[in-house]
UniProtKB/TrEMBL annotation:
The keyword Heme applies. Its cofactor is heme b. InterPro entries: Cyt_b561_bac/Ni-Hgenase, Cytochrome_b561_oxidase, Di-haem_cyt_TM. Residues 10-167 form the Cytochrome b561 bacterial/Ni-hydrogenase domain. This is Cytochrome b561. Keywords: Cell membrane, Electron transport, Heme, Iron, Membrane, Metal-binding, Transmembrane, Transmembrane helix, Transport. GO terms for biological process: respiratory electron transport chain. It is a multi-pass membrane protein. Its main location: membrane. Belongs to the cytochrome b561 family. One of its GO terms (molecular function) is metal ion binding. One of its GO terms (cellular component) is plasma membrane. The chain crosses the membrane at residues 16-34, 54-71, 83-104, 135-156.
Amino acid sequence: MAINDSQKYYGSVSRLLHWITALLVTLQLASAYMNNWQPGNAFSQLFQPWHATVGFMILALVGLRIVWLLFQIRNRPPHQGKAVLIGHLSIYALLVAAPVSGLLQGFGIRLFDHLVSKGIGTPFAEASQAIHGPIAYLLTVLIAGHVFMALFHHWVHRDGTLYRMVGQAKS
């Protein structure tokens, strides 16, 4: 499998960055929702101490994805319309906004449940706390739409979109 993207499929680097991000975001959202709905459940107790670390990892991965995208943009097929472009840009924006709003809350930076940097009071702490959850809800809706459209293209349009995402040419 090629490293670089092509008109037929996304390369191994793009797919790896996509699926690692998808896994981390899924774990992040699942643990947060479970903690909100059933505080103290076993899954949340296991994962919640890692919430800030995973958020920081997501932010770093999205940064890498953006850099990689800029190098691969000419290799990729053109977007299938403005709605697709707006959807993808919105997901990227929220994948940045969620961890940034978490960092701006002023609790410090924790990596693997160890405090790396003390929190500092920021003028944005209260606003960041207020928007962190709604950003996650909006991100969930956009991700659900993203998954739905990938499956819709696969089963209804049969246009090879899903095959490009998993690295196989349409047969």
